[in-house]
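Hi P.,

Sorry for the delay on this. The queue was packed all week, but I finally got your sequence through. Input first:
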Amino acid sequence: MLGKITSLLQLNIKLEWQQRQSYFSILIYVLSTVYLTFLVFNGTMSVETWNSFFWVIFIFAAVQAAYRSFHHEAEQRFLLYFGMVSPQVLILGKIVYNFLYLTLVGLFTTLLFIFFLGQNMTSPGAFIFILVLAALGFSSILTFVAGISAKAGNNPALPTILSIPLLYPQIITLSRVSQRALTGFSWEINAPLLLVLSMIALVCFLLSFLLFPYLWRD
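Then the structure:
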């Protein structure tokens, strides 16, 4: 299974690199929105505002990036995959690819926020750990939603409509714990919130893994 997942990961990277403008479109979106935020706030904002704008920009960048998860999978390619790999392997390969992709997008967004808006993180390690958990949860939900969208004719509005309510519990927890990472973070005190965040990411991953085969058969 690991070999097939690796092959699917390599295939996704090659397919996306052939249309590398999709990578640059995400980067330009993040850069332009962060720079616009810098202009609006004149380079200074409170920690709460910094934290809120970071997650808003990252969430919509994640939705836009994950929407392309099944962009290359025409109906004929779905049939080809059906004869080559199991649906569990396919969804795992897509989730791993989006996890890596969203982690890089999140790190890029963080660097831009620090460069333009300035923020002396008291616990950068904790913030990056939270960002990785967010990328795992987001990739699990958004990949599954992208599969639903692909089966529904790649409707561009569908991922946003479906994903925002599903991401809401994770967003609320993320906003609380990440703000503490910016001002003063204690692993012992915040362990319950980190555990909740980890469990949400795990549940999202398991739901995508278990439900995707039913979507695959449709």
